[in-house]
Amino acid sequence: MNSYAGHESNTWNSLEVINSQVAADKFYRLNKQARLSNLWNRLTGRSGTLLAYQLMRPQAAKEASPSRGVKEIPVKSIVGSVSRYTDYDRQFRPLNPALKNRWINVHVLSEQNGWEPITVHKVGDQYFVEDGHHRVSVARHSGWEFIEAQVVE
Predict the structure, then answer these.
(1) How far apart are CA 24 and CA 136, in angstroms?
(2) Is the dihedral of CA 140, 141, 144, 149 positive or negative?
(3) Helix (H) or strand (E) holding 139
(4) How many structural domains compose the chain?
(5) CB 38 within 8 A of CB 87
(6) What count of other Cβ atoms lies within 10 Å of the Cβ of residue 80?
(7) Which CATH number is 119's domain given?
(8) Burial (CB count within 10 angstroms: exposed 0-12, middle 13-18, buried 19+), residue 42
(9) pLDDT tens across 22-61, in order?
(10) Residue 87, Cβ neighbours under 10 Å: how many?
(11) Which residue range is the domain that position 87 belongs to?
């Protein structure tokens, strides 16, 4: 009985290592694409980073916004960030190499257990991430169409 339990544990660890390597490869590919795109955007005078919530809603910090509860929202409708708009490009590819370890862990979690809803602010039909940037990035680049979010309007 013990040898079976040990075998199951070794199999689980092997799968976790494989999942981590797949996630790391995906992170490096996305990071490289984001950095190249960012360079091109700088050369052409365009902005390729996420939209800044403060620029869309200058009074946002002063206003109390009601929560609309947890909803499934389209991942493609998430276009900006409340505070981390320079960490990702417009396609939610990670620009900052320092995001790697957390991004990989979130990717592995998405395949094992899932995660908590993200927190977003809604402006019109667009959403701005307050909490859950890594989860949005992983979801978007794993082909998810919808993600659970605590929506604040």
Answers:
(1) 16
(2) negative
(3) helix 133-140
(4) 1
(5) no
(6) 23
(7) 3.90.1530.10
(8) exposed
(9) 899 999 999 998 999 888 877 877 877 888 888 776 554 4
(10) 19
(11) 2-152
What is the amino acid identity at position 30?
A: L
Partners of residue 152 on adjacent β-strands:
67, 121
Looking at residue 1, its amino acid is M
Spatial distance between the Cα atoms of 34 and 46, rounded to a whole number of angstroms: 14
Residue 88: what residue type?
Y
Cite the DSSP H helix spans in 45-66.
53-56
Q: Which amino acid is at 104?
A: I
Distance CA 123, CA 21 (A): 37
Six-digit token string for 43? 């050369």
Tens digit of pLDDT for each residue in 54-108?
877 655 444 556 677 899 999 999 999 999 888 999 999 999 999 999 999 999 9
Cβ(92)–Cβ(135) below 8 Å = no
